[in-house]
Amino acid sequence: EIMVALIVAVAAAVSVYIFIYYNFLKGVKCKSDVSLNGRTVIVTGANTGIGKETALDMARRGARVVLACRSKDRAEAAVLDIRRKTSNNQVVFMHLDLASLKSVRAFAETFLKSEPQLHILINNAGKRCVKLGKTEDGFSMGVGVNHFGHFLLTNLLLERLKQCVPSRVVVLASETYRMVGLDFSKLSRTEPGHTNGFLDYAHSKLCNVLFARELSNRLEGTNVTCYSVHPGVVNTEVFRHLNRWLMLILVPVAALLFRDPEGGAQTSIHCAVQEGIERFSGRYFSDCRVREVVAHARDDAVARKLWEFSERMVGLSNKAIHPVMLLDSFLFVYKEEKSSRKIDGNRVIMQRFVSVKFSPLG
Ligand SMILES: NC(=O)c1ccc[n+]([C@@H]2O[C@H](COP(=O)([O-])OP(=O)(O)OC[C@H]3O[C@@H](n4cnc5c(N)ncnc54)[C@H](OP(=O)(O)O)[C@@H]3O)[C@@H](O)[C@H]2O)c1
Ligand SMILES: *[C@@H]1O[C@H](CO)[C@@H](O)[C@H](O)[C@H]1NC(C)=O
């Protein structure tokens, strides 16, 4: 009898898990069956995780897919695997290290010389560090790779995208964007930058959301559209930098509760191919649906400021960073204000973001 009860309990637990997995964890699948024959796609960081699954899907649809990666060995292994699974031999590797603006420029030059077309650019690569490093150009690692590298890359490829309309840019962001306010002093390379790898990552993801917003504003009327994406909480190598003890806990939790990379790629795929979402250009998607972002991530004035600031940081604008301009930028530092109030007898936490003045000159 105990045996029967045990079996029933285990069966119940397994069914509950399967129910939760398919309804909440696995996520929504992209429904489009659009073919990408004759189209060219770039996926950055496509040798593993969400990027590899995204590239695999693009290859299945018949696209020519460029895997833009920093490690030749890892990327070539992925190229072989994707070719084998899809029988599409139009899958190629091109070297790109987003931690170096020089490498970004070299990639763009090679790509523009050798590839006549570009229809879909997927800015997928993402760096999350525990120990804070700096990029070749002196940016903190997360912001440098995730935002500035992709910012320059997109700008250098924009003309080609405009020649191949309708075309799209997909930017991998993350829900962590909510956890920080935009602080220009932490983006610049002359300042000490971030003190914490997680904040650096979250900050870069806020930049990604604002970047997609401003890019779509600038592209209005061109038929090039862009979208930012939260892929879900996905079991990839993004956690590989955590220490051994954290990994020990995280590995089983991730295996059970996180989305698999194929599920994590669905919203990127949706934003790359789904017809009829063009009117949502500049917006943020998760689970293949458009979502509202918090107020400080949809402020057009801040998004424009970030764009102009980034242009100067990556050397796209030859205007020097005038101290007044810098000071002006610092006016857009956001601080979160929390207060609690009683409404109808319940205590409610009120959150709002306010801009505060911040002078780098003290
Ligand atoms: N996993 C999640 O739960 C989650 C949640 C929210 C958002 N995201 C976002 O989704 C995107 C994909 O993440 P993932 O989970 O698939 O991560 P992942 O498994 O760690 O893959 C990241 C990819 O980015 C590449 N990369 C890192 N630094 C690079 C550089 N300097 N130049 C070029 N490529 C570089 C990596 O290349 P190497 O293999 O050579 O390092 C790898 O191919 C990221 O933008 C991430 O922020 C993920
Ligand atoms: C954008 O697409 C529409 C609808 O296909 C077309 O009428 C228009 O001419 C296009 N505009 C540009 C700038 O390509």
From TrEMBL:
Please name the SUPFAM superfamilies in this protein's record: NAD(P)-binding Rossmann-fold domains
GO molecular function terms here?
A: oxidoreductase activity
One Pfam family from the UniProt entry? adh_short
Q: Is Transmembrane found in the keyword set?
A: yes
Q: Any transmembrane segments, and where?
A: 6-25
Q: Could you tell me the keywords of this UniProt record? A: Membrane, Oxidoreductase, Transmembrane, Transmembrane helix
State the family named in the UniProt similarity comment for this chain: Belongs to the short-chain dehydrogenases/reductases (SDR) family.
What is this protein called in UniProt? Answer: Dehydrogenase/reductase (SDR family) member 13a, duplicate 3
Where does this protein come from, organism-wise? Callorhinchus milii
